[in-house]
TrEMBL record:
Residues 22-242 form the Aminoglycoside phosphotransferase domain. Transmembrane segments: none annotated. Keywords: Transferase. It comes from Planifilum fimeticola. PANTHER family: AMINOGLYCOSIDE PHOSPHOTRANSFERASE DOMAIN-CONTAINING PROTEIN, AMINOGLYCOSIDE PHOSPHOTRANSFERASE-RELATED-RELATED. This is Aminoglycoside 2''-phosphotransferase. It comes from the Bacteria. SUPFAM superfamilies: Protein kinase-like (PK-like).
């Protein structure tokens, strides 16, 4: 996405806004992100469906932010009719945990308290238009599995294909036989989206995948990106429900995580992303 076109879009929509400096932050799969004046973050959807996603994210964060023990984006400058459309919020203080040399010892406790608050919010209050039940969550993963089977598995060697099919079966069996209590979740809790300041959690960003889902998925993201030790330590400070299959589901979500990137790589012809996720899948399967 052209940064200059994005700047023109901001300036045209918010004429009184003076742009003194800018720098591209993230050229992601779904959004192009720019920092402006060192104080604002502007997100530009790459695809038409991204507009609806950004609207949903902004509405969700408006409802949940007063209840969370950490900062989250609050969209103040939004223009859906601009070219390209965008949403802008004041920069959340802190730096990404992915940039930290070591994980500060207090971060796991802070994350535990944060996820406890998020997962305890009444879904009907933060997602008033949703009617998600366990069957819908299962159906979502059934569709996801079918898509991976059609597009990704045929690219794998027999050993990896067998391992992945086993994970598919186990996850769907658990979902079908147990009652998964759904809650509001972040949906993509990678180290890149966790911000720290002075050794403490300062905020969580990038809520585009927030939904009413399985809370084990947020712990799977911690495991996948920051290791099981941090995820388990976070759970020590977590007051949400951990049923008998909670950690089994988290482990299966973690194992299947590279398939998201592999599908994206196939759809966009990105060999680098494919190789990176293939390497992670092999390490997981061994």
């Amino acid at each position: 996405m052209d940064p200059k076109q994005c700047l023109r879009s901001i300036q045209k929509a918010v004429s009184a806004f003076q742009i003194r400096s800018f720098r591209p932050i993230c050229d992601g799969w779904d959004f192009f992100v720019m920092e402006v004046n060192g104080e604002w973050m502007f997100r530009f959807p790459r695809h038409p469906e991204g507009i609806a996603q950004l609207k949903r994210e902004a509405a969700f964060l408006e409802k949940v932010s007063p209840h969370l023990p950490g900062s989250v984006p609050r969209y103040e400058r939004i223009c859906w009719d601009s070219d390209p459309p965008f949403g802008g919020y004041r920069k959340v203080a802190g730096h990404s945990l992915s940039d930290a040399r070591n994980i500060p010892p207090n971060v796991s406790a802070d994350l535990g308290h944060f996820l406890s608050a998020l997962h305890s919010l009444p879904p009907e209050e933060v997602f008033p238009s949703d009617s998600v039940e366990q069957a819908d969550w299962v159906a979502l993963w059934q569709r996801r599995v079918r898509l991976w089977e059609e597009r990704v598995l045929k690219e794998l060697d027999p050993f990896l294909e067998s391992a992945v099919r086993g994970w598919f079966r186990r996850l769907l069996e658990i979902m079908d036989s147990s009652s998964v209590r759904l809650t509001p979740i972040h949906g993509d809790l990678s180290a890149e989206h966790v911000l720290i300041r002075d050794g403490r959690l300062s905020g969580v960003i990038d809520w585009g995948d927030a939904c009413w889902g399985d809370p084990a998925l947020d712990f799977a993201a911690l495991c996948h990106d920051m290791g099981e030790t941090l995820a388990r330590e976070t759970a020590r400070h977590y007051t949400g429900r951990q049923d008998a299959t909670f950690w089994v589901r988290a482990d299966l979500y973690r194992k299947l995580a590279p398939l998201h990137g592999m599908l994206h790589a196939l759809e966009h012809g990105d060999r680098r992303i494919w190789e990176s996720n293939m390497r992670r899948l092999r390490e997981t399967a061994v």
